[in-house]
Amino acid sequence: MDALKRATDLGLDLVEVSPGTDPPVCRILSYGKYKYKLSKKVQKKHRGVQLKEIRVRPKIGEHDLQTKIKQAKKFLERKDRVLVNMMFRGREMAHRDMAQDVFGKFSEALEDIAKVETQARSKGRSMGIILSPK
Q1: What's the predicted TM-score (pTM) here?
Q2: Closest by alpha carbon to 54, among 44, 62, 64, 46?
Q3: For the domain bounded by 2-45, which CATH number is listed?
Q4: Three-state SS for 22?
Q5: Is 96 exposed, middle or buried (0-12, 13-18, 19+ CB in 10 A)?
Q6: According to CATH, what is the number of the domain 51-133?
Q7: Whole-angstrom Cα distance, residue 4 to residue 12?
Q8: Nearest to 73 by CA among 101, 29, 46, 112
């Protein structure tokens, strides 16, 4: 009864947080805010796995490659799959071995948190691999 009086004095609600325990646990808080936070927690749990794309070129610089690897690592830590897509222009189509080198660097740098789901597949003027979190 004392807790209920204290809650009304503060303009808040007395919310039973854990009714199954003995004695039941209650908190003085805004019930609307509490329900909002619970709904956000449920939405975060139900977030689906997405396929994120990272585009690279065969002649990518070392620093640019490290930046792309860092971005892929961030996606993989969020449990998303990553498509590393190599775009070719003009005579770059003749140098598919350069693409294999870049893909090798990607998979080597991320081998502790990701595995290669699909090997390099060529489709038109692009080639890609898919990495998924371990």
Answers
A1: 0.64
A2: 64
A3: 3.10.20.80
A4: coil
A5: middle
A6: 3.30.110.10
A7: 9
A8: 112
